[in-house]
Design brief:
This protein is mainly beta. It is 0% helix and 51% strand. The chain has strands at 3-7, 10-13, 18-25, 33-39, 46-51, 57-59, 67-72, 77-82, 91-98, 109-110, 114-119.
């Protein structure tokens, strides 16, 4: 089992930045794909970004060029650097882990989420 805990969410003005962190415990995450999803009430979870064990990055179209995913295996942590934030980025952001990269929300392990709110 892998336990994931997100942090770093908050309230920010449009154009600002936030960095989310996802700390994993239970197993070393170096072998896993680490991903970020987001969700607003009444909508399905949306794929944001993923990074595989080789550090290849994958992004959803709505965040390309603005968000950067990274990982530090020594710290069992994944990050999501979010720049040029927009009100449409407002959501609960979830960290997830899986054996393979997929863009649907069928990941094996999930955190509880951290709220990001972007004001105009």
């Amino acid at each position: 089992q892998v336990q994931l805990v997100e942090s770093g969410g908050g309230l920010v003005q449009a154009g600002g930045s936030l960095r989310l962190s996802c700390i994993a415990s239970g197993r070393a995450v170096s072998r896993y794909v680490m991903a970020w999803f987001r969700q607003i009430p009444g909508k399905p979870r949306e794929f944001v970004a993923a990074i595989n064990p080789a550090a290849t990055e994958f992004y959803g179209d709505s965040v390309k060029g603005r968000f950067t995913i990274s990982r530090d295996n020594a710290k069992n942590t994944a990050y999501l650097q979010m720049n040029m934030l927009r009100p449409s980025d407002t959501a609960v952001y979830y960290c997830a882990a899986n054996d393979i990269v997929i863009t649907t929300d069928l990941y094996d392990f999930w955190g509880r989420g951290t709220q990001v709110a972007v004001t105009s």
